[in-house]
TrEMBL record:
Subcellular location field: Cytoplasm
Annotated ranges, domain Pyrroline-5-carboxylate reductase dimerisation: 158-261
Binding site for NADP(+): 6-11
Name of the featured protein: Pyrroline-5-carboxylate reductase
Gene giving rise to this polypeptide: proC
Alphabetical GO biological process terms: L-proline biosynthetic process
All copies of domain Pyrroline-5-carboxylate reductase catalytic N-terminal, residue ranges: 2-95
InterPro entries reported in the protein's UniProt record: 6-PGluconate_DH-like_C_sf, NAD(P)-bd_dom_sf, P5C_Rdtase_cat_N, P5CR-like_CS, P5CR_dimer, Pyrroline-COOH_reductase
EC top class named in words: oxidoreductase
Broad class of the protein's primary localization: cytoplasm
Gene Ontology cellular-component annotations: cytoplasm
Pfam families, per the entry: F420_oxidored (PF03807), P5CR_dimer (PF14748)
Catalytic activity annotation: L-proline + NADP(+) = (S)-1-pyrroline-5-carboxylate + NADPH + 2 H(+); L-proline + NAD(+) = (S)-1-pyrroline-5-carboxylate + NADH + 2 H(+)
Source organism of the structure: Jiangella mangrovi
Pathway the protein takes part in: Amino-acid biosynthesis; L-proline biosynthesis; L-proline from L-glutamate 5-semialdehyde: step 1/1
Length: 268
């Protein structure tokens, strides 16, 4: 069974690495990339064959679409004549609906939509999967199988994908911004940047592990850190005054709205 990845940038490479790590032989994976120097880099790094989009689709049983949302339409127009009934197309592009993809491919091609995130690069990704009009359980299972070594996945109705994109698709960027802000604050308090970075990275990693391993609600874990009249309460009060929670609501609404706009082909 051959898998083709169209667009091997940040996300495509995370998937490629995960698929190979999951034990699929490199002879069963094809890549399609625009720039010859990127193609050469991928062949050197993974031993993978890089071909053009149409050939990749011709030879593949499953096609992963990992180009930018505004490139999905042109790429589908380029490959539609090479697609055939019985194939599975898995789109990972933010905002692009299964009906958008289905409308550009021959009837009988199954389409699944996935919203992944970049921790997939280290096997800690979170992906949400939705079926299109012509895909069944076997197609969702195939997508899950491909994603298995990149982290976790859940099934959601497609109408929830814009919200998923706002929460877990873009989510790593919010966490990295918190990391940046905490490191800079530590430097402001007189720590070296190296020490501040180590403190923050391990604090985030440890807190995430605590959340996962205890299964406790974040409120309970936060309360355990917050001693009456102590340092944490003083800091949290400032974050509440700054409107952190409301900011997250507004920010995630903006991400959801942007995801919706991408599906209507709104330009960058
Ligand atoms: N990055 C993220 O955190 C996430 C991204 N996504 C989705 O994944 C998709 C890819 O995003 P990301 O990896 O960040 O973007 P990148 O720009 O890193 O990757 C896109 C890749 O597609 C290549 N490409 C562009 N046009 C074509 C073409 N016609 N044929 C073949 N390859 C082409 C690009 O090459 P070149 O550089 O030469 O243009 C690039 O290597 C997007 O749709 C995004 O919404 C989803 C969830 C998370
Ligand atoms: O910013 C974006 O549009 C993509 C989708 C989710 C994360 N990155």
């Amino acid at each position: 069974m051959t898998v083709a990845i169209l667009g091997v940038g940040v996300m495509g490479e995370a998937l490629l690495a995960g698929i190979l790590q999951g034990g699929r032989p490199v002879s069963e994976v094809l890549a399609a990339e625009k720039r010859p120097e990127r193609a050469a880099e991928l062949t050197e790094r993974y031993g993978i064959e890089v071909v053009d989009n149409a050939e990749a689709v011709k030879r593949a049983d499953t096609v992963l679409l990992v180009v930018k949302p505004y490139d999905v339409g042109p790429v589908l127009d380029e490959v539609a004549a090479s697609a055939r009934p019985g194939q599975l197309f898995v789109s990972l592009a933010a905002g692009i609906t299964t009906s958008f993809v289905e409308a550009r491919l021959p009837g009988g091609v199954a389409v699944v939509r996935v919203m992944p995130n970049t921790p997939a690069l280290v096997g800690e990704g979170m992906a949400a999967i939705s079926p299109g009009s012509f895909s069944g359980d076997e197609h969702l299972a195939e997508a899950e199988d491909l994603l298995r070594s990149t982290g976790r996945s859940v099934r959601v109705p497609e109408k929830q994908q814009d919200a998923v994109t706002a929460v877990s698709g873009s989510g790593p960027a919010y966490v990295f911004m918190v990391a940046e802000a905490m490191i800079e604050a530590g430097v402001h308090l007189g720590l070296t940047r190296v020490t501040a970075t180590e403190l923050v990275v391990q604090t985030l990693t440890g807190s995430a592990a605590l959340l996962r391993e205890t299964g406790e609600h974040p409120t309970v874990l936060r309360e355990r850190v917050t001693s009456p009249g102590g340092t944490t309460a003083a800091a949290l009060r400032k974050l509440e005054e700054g409107g952190l929670r409301a900011d997250f609501l507004v920010a995630l609404e903006a991400a959801r709205d942007r995801s919706r706009a991408l599906s209507s082909g709104e330009p960058v």
